[in-house]
Amino acid sequence: MLFEKVVSELLAHNSYMIGSGREAAVIDPRRDCRVYTNIAESRGMEITHIFETHRNEDYVIGSRELARPTGALIHHSRKAGFGYGNAIAEGDTFSIGTLMLRVLETPGHTPESLSFVLADTSVSDDPFMVFTGDALFAGDVGRTDLAGEELREEMSGMLYDSLHEKILPLGDDVIVCPAHGAGSVCGGDISDREYTTIGYEKEHTPLLQKTKAEFVEYKKQEQLYVPPYFRRMEELNLQGPPLIYNIPHLAALKPQEIGEGQKQATQIVDIRSPTSFAGGHIAGSINIWREGLPAFMGYLLNYDDPIILIDDFNLDLDQVTRHFIRLGYDNLTGYLAPGFAAWFRQGKPIERNGTWSPYDLNDHLDDPSIYILDVRDVTHRERDGSIPGSHHIYVGHLEDKLDEVPKDKRIVVHCDVGYKGSIGASILQKNGFKDVINLLGGTYGWEGAGYSLTRD
């Protein structure tokens, strides 16, 4: 039997490949899908089926991309009106060699959510694995707000029923294979566990121990951000995303070509560290460090205007490109070659933002000309505390709330360490704020220097 979990790092997306004999199937494939055909070829298998647990909101589904070279049949729920593939329903079964997959309809995260129960009939008809999509994670359950606030109570009740009437009764020893791991925006607090079982989750996940009324009330009050790109993902995944065939080639651009892009509607994304960005960057660029791209590009970038990357040495841009195509940014077009040094070697203008240490901020804490802006998410601010006198706007919403930030003050932006603070600083500078400082170390550094955070 073949079982392999394929993890899309940073996006915290899990897809799975199962197989028996010469047949294989993939569950929730990602868009850059060669990994699955490579596995199949190495095992002498043919991918015959592709299963989707739901329409997905946080990445582009790779089903059509994978079906093109393999001829595999795509299967998803009958309830969502997909523009491609085959509709399946509760009780349908599929054979992959000696493996048997049985369909469970488990709505709640979305109305059309499915789970797939796996049995190896060469041993027993009993289930030993369940692919739960976004219904059940390690340490958490799926969010229920994406169908709209007016339906959150109904969706929460549906998820409770799906969990307690369909998934949990499968048996304590059944292995749980969720579509996401720790760090995903599809849950509130997913645990960092590679593998788990139904029994372990029943015992250790507090949400599964609540009554239905308690569960629904908790989910109604849950505060989770909805990145704007979610709607784009839902549209693409329902209609069928365009085929890309391979990782796209990026054009190596000269500084003068980047300069022309500044005059047009080009999105310049600087993927260097906050300290490198602060020391010098191209005016109008947005700083999203490499590892932060999957979490924040969907808040800050549009799908129409060309995207150009700025880095120091352009190392492993192939992996960076994958982050973009997994979120549907097919408008990523090029990069500055051979790196940022090419820009300043030609004497091109450089913009800077300031940096402060916690000691610098403490020296100015009572200065009325200082405006401290906390760009962490609200959960971290409420849980961990805040720097005295700070104001809060989540970095993903900053561009929509610029009118709340005074232009006549020195803006000190901070997060928990300094990376999201640099995103915030770049947004402010792009929108005309002249005196912007990023607090290096953020709240961690603030406490590390011996200063206290305010806790309400």
List keywords for this structure.
Metallo-beta-lactamase, Chain A, 3 domains, six-stranded mixed beta sheet, 22 strands, Oxidized Rhodanese, domain 1, 22% strand, 456 residues, single chain
Plain-language structure description:
- GO terms for molecular function: metal ion binding; sulfur dioxygenase activity.
- Pfam families: Lactamase_B (PF00753), Rhodanese (PF00581).
- Keywords: Metal-binding.
- Residues 262-352, 366-455 form the Rhodanese domain.
- One of its GO terms (biological process) is hydrogen sulfide metabolic process.
- The chain is α/β, with parallel strands linked by helices and 456 residues long.
- The protein folds into three domains: 2-239, Metallo-beta-lactamase, Chain A (4-Layer Sandwich), CATH 3.60.15.10; 251-345, Oxidized Rhodanese, domain 1, CATH 3.40.250; 354-448, Oxidized Rhodanese, domain 1 (3-Layer(aba) Sandwich).
- Helix content is 29%, strand content 22%.
- It is built from 15 helices and 22 strands.
- It has helices spanning 34-42, 63-70, 152-167, 198-204, 212-221, 229-239, 255-262, 274-279, 293-300, 317-326, 340-345, 358-363, 378-384, 419-430, 442-448, and strands at 2-8, 13-20, 23-27, 46-51, 73-77, 86-88, 93-96, 99-105, 114-120, 129-133, 175-178, 196-197, 251-253, 267-270, 286-287, 307-310, 332-336, 354-356, 370-374, 391-392, 410-414, 436-439.
- Strands 1-2-3-4-5-6 form a six-stranded mixed beta sheet, with helices on one face.
- Helix 3 (152-167) packs across helix 5 (212-221).
- The longest helix has 16 residues, at 152-167.
- The chain is globular and about 70 Å long.
- The protein starts with a strand and ends in an 8-residue tail after the last helix.
- The mean pLDDT is 96.
